[in-house]
């Protein structure tokens, strides 16, 4: 039985989409497959139309029971999704797993022991992990034969990846059983130059550690999830379904024994290389480094600083006061490697070269890329979480959206609202969980 954990600390990079559809695709090629949801947000149940209100017991109860030496069996909580495809759902209780298990010996091996009880029943177990490295993710890693790191092709993907691999490297040292790590490009949009360049970077540094299969950006995947279906059911002829079928076949064909030790041992080398690339890319767009104070705040162990009370002023909209960004340069410079030309560019054009947030004097610039969106708004503690107050402006025909907001010094939390759907800013790596278990994007104004 192979146990494949889908891990990335970054939220919104496609973990749940990969988990659901890889599990479904494995079942589709005749592999008996169990999907285990280790994320308290329970998105696997939502994405597979398992009614949350009817989930009486979840993987939480089984893990806790194992930790306490009790006897709730995994088979008692499973939901059948289709032939050869079952789900062990999660529940919000999982968020308290770390606390509940404190002081219990062997608490990091609960999932491993639980899965050992069904080792004859499945060919594959796919484990969807939360966007954090805590006891839940560590349980998944300890149980795993394979780890898949989905990497979205966004601006911070390389940077996030280096952090992720560093963590995996540290954790792998604490595991007796070595696991195979593979990087999976997800939400790849071949039409964006940045996407193509990031994919090329990844291939350069991770040859042999990357799937040949790429999961393309495909809106059918999003639609399938919102209707509670794997892509194989929702649209069997879609690109998304083809990608996951190819991924399942590639995974089945991977000889983990051959790669395992060698790949884990070489993680550090690759990490150094990829970190260098990420730094280079970040330097190219001159993203200001966080201040010492911000770094302290970003460290998980550090106490939060009390931010000065933020004030909000109405947005300054283009063309009156926001930088004039011509459509053409935006297209031409959505690249990460045009250094000599970049030096000659005006400040405004440089701003257009990156997505995410950037402070300009006493205003904050938000730039993002949503080629298919009809409306992009922002909601945050600076506008009382009212997205209708702050509409981003579309710049050119390439799906770049931006707004410049005057903001006073302090720490702010926000989410983007794209065609009515709330989501974290995919180009801002600073996040924190909100009370609803979703990720808010975080920014600091100096
Ligand atoms: N390949 C893809 N194409 C289009 N949308 C995608 C793709 N992968 C994920 N998404 C969408 O992106 C959002 C975040 O994906 P999700 O799988 O929930 O990420 P995570 O589990 O890492 O937080 C979801 O709305 C999902 O439908
Ligand atoms: Mg998820």
Number of domains: 2
Mean pLDDT: 78
CATH superfamily of the largest domain: P-loop containing nucleotide triphosphate hydrolases
The largest beta-sheet arranges its strands as 3-4-2-5-1-6-7
- What percentage of the residues does DSSP assign to strands (E)? 15-25%
Category by helix and strand content: alpha/beta
Q: Could you tell me which ligands this complex binds, including any ions or cofactors?
A: adenosine-5'-diphosphate, magnesium ion
Uncertain parts: 257-282, 284-352
Number of helices: 17
Task: Summarize it.
The chain has 446 residues and is of the alpha/beta class.
What would your notes on this structure say?
The protein has 446 residues and is α/β, with parallel strands linked by helices. The strands form 3 sheets. A 7-stranded mixed β-sheet has the order 3-4-2-5-1-6-7, sandwiched between helices. The relative contact order is 0.12. The protein is built from 17 helices and 16 strands. The chain folds into 2 domains: 279 residues, Rossmann fold (3-Layer(aba) Sandwich), CATH 3.40.50.300; 147 residues, Immunoglobulin-like, CATH 2.60.40. The protein binds adenosine-5'-diphosphate (ADP) and magnesium ion (MG).
């Amino acid at each position: 039985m192979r146990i494949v954990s889908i891990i990335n600390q970054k939220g919104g990079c496609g973990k749940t989409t990969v988990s659901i559809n890889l599990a479904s695709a494995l079942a589709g090629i005749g592999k008996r497959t169990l999907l285990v949801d280790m994320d308290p947000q329970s998105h696997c149940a939502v994405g597979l139309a398992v009614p949350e209100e009817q989930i009486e017991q979840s993987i939480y109860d089984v893990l806790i029971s194992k930790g306490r030496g009790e006897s709730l069996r995994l088979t008692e909580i499973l939901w059948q999704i289709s032939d050869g495809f079952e789900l062990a759902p999660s529940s919000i209780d999982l968020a308290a797993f770390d606390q509940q298990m404190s002081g219990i010996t062997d608490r990091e091996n609960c999932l491993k022991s639980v899965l050992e009880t069904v080792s004859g029943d499945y060919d594959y177990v796919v484990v969807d992990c939360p966007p954090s490295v805590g006891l839940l993710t560590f349980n998944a890693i300890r149980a795993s034969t394979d780890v898949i790191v989905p990497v979205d092709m966004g601006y911070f993907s390389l940077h996030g990846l280096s952090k992720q691999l560093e963590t995996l490297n540290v954790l792998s040292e604490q595991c007796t059983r070595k696991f195979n790590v593979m990087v999976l490009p997800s939400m790849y949009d071949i039409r964006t130059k940045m996407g193509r360049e990031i994919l090329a970077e990844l291939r350069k540094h991770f040859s042999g550690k990357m799937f040949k299969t790429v999961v393309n950006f495909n809106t059918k995947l999003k639609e399938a999830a919102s209707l509670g279906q794997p892509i194989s059911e929702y649209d069997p002829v879609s690109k998304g379904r083809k990608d996951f079928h190819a991924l399942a076949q590639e995974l089945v064909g991977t000889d983990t024994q051959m790669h395992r030790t060698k790949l884990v041992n070489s993680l550090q080398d690759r990490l150094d290389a990829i970190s260098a690339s990420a730094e280079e890319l970040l330097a190219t767009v001159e993203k200001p480094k966080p201040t010492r104070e911000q770094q302290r705040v970003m460290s998980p162990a550090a106490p939060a600083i009390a931010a000065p009370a933020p004030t909000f002023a109405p947005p300054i909209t283009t063309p009156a006061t926001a930088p004039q960004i011509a459509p053409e340069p935006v297209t031409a410079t959505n690249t990460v490697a045009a250094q000599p030309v970049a030096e000659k560019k005006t400040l405004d054009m440089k701003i257009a070269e990156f997505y995410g947030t950037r402070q300009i004097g006493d205003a904050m610039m938000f730039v993002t890329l949503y080629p298919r969106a009809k409306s992009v708004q922002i909601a945050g503690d600076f506008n009382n979480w009212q997205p209708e107050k702050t509409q981003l402006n579309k710049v050119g025909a390439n799906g770049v959206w931006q707004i410049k907001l005057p903001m006073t010094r302090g720490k702010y939390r926000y989410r983007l609202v794209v065609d009515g759907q709330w989501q974290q800013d995919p180009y801002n790596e600073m996040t924190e969980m909100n009370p609803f278990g979703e990720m808010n994007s975080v920014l600091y104004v100096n």
